[in-house]
Amino acid sequence: VFLKVSLVVTDAQMGSYPKIWILMWFSALLRVFLIGYGEWQDKHMDVHYTDIDYLVFSDAASLVAAGKSPFGRSTYRYSPLLAIILVPNTYLHPLWGKLIFSSA
Fold it and tell me: Rounded to an integer, what distance in angstroms lies between the CA atom of residue 2 and that of residue 12?
């Protein structure tokens, strides 16, 4: 006996539940809001929202952007791929990594 599994959900199956795209937009806006709040907290409060590891990631990304090894930062003990993914932190905006991390 085989079970047929449908990955497509129709409006009739959803009933009164909100459409998935509404939930996705809401969650995306909530994440952007929390990133903004974290930036505000980092600038105005003694306890920072951003962990020190994010600064280590960003420094390693800057080294990679300069053509150097991410391990030039003595506390960087992560995959070089992480530093490569965060290179736009150097060129675009320092929040690039936070947007990437929050979308995962």
Answer: 24
Q: What is the 3-state secondary structure (H, E, C) of the chain?
A: CCCCCCCCCCHHHHCCCCCHHHHHHHHHHHHHHHHHHHHHHHHHCCCCCCCHHHHHHHHHHHHHHCCCCHHHCCCCCCCHHHHHHCCHHHHCCCCHHHHHHHHC
Query: What is the pTM assigned to this prediction?
Result: 0.70
Other Cβ atoms within 10 Å of 6 Cβ, number:
7
What are the φ and ψ backbone dihedral angles of 89, each rounded to 5 degrees?
A: -55, -35
Tell me the C-alpha distance between 42 and 77, whole Å. Answer: 24
What pLDDT score does 57 carry? 92
Q: Give residue 50's pLDDT band: very low, low, confident or very high (50, 70, 90).
A: confident
**Residue 52 CA neighbour count, 13 Å, CB half:** 3
